[in-house]
């Protein structure tokens, strides 16, 4: 990877780690300190960040991290559904049976542990399990353009999420149940049921964001 690409990866990781807040203004020098990469690499990554919609340049003020508003929420979740509907329908037909069973077992283990006690470690494991399933389904399409678009949109989805919409301890069981409903549909190769389960899961996440 070039220094520009490494700086980009560092920036997006800090964004996901919430070291940067939506709407926050930062300077190029601050990005140098944050990412640990030289000013040249930071300057080179800025056009890509702007193209991805993760920052924007505001005259006389500097660089502003993407601001979370209803337009961003609506657009990001709409794009997520467009991509994931296609991905889950494909996954239902192509995923190996042993992989679907492994996903089922992983979710059941996390759910069983969560019914007793949701430790910070288990909470993080559940969150990663959630993200990984969606990423795996999209990756199964084998389309690099779609995967890249989805990756950037996923960053925006995670940027949108507040304390109320991340994987909170009390949400672990319900999210695992939503995933298990999807996995059951995948196991019987039912595309329509898989898409319906996915839509219900994504709509649940969106409701938490807009607090419906």
What would you report as the Rg, rounded to the nearest angstrom?
19 Å
Side-by-side strand order of the widest sheet: 1-3-2
Strand fraction equals under 5%
- The H/E string reads HEHHEEHHHHHH
Keywords: DNA-binding, Transcription, Transcription regulation
Domain HTH gntR-type: 1-68
GO molecular function, one term: DNA-binding transcription factor activity
Protein name: GntR family transcriptional regulator
Q: What keyword list fits this structure?
A:
about 210 residues; mainly alpha; Four Helix Bundle (Hemerythrin (Met), subunit A); 3-stranded antiparallel sheet; 9 helices; 3 strands; globular; DNA-binding transcription factor activity; DNA-binding; WH-like_DNA-bd_sf; transcription; transcription regulation
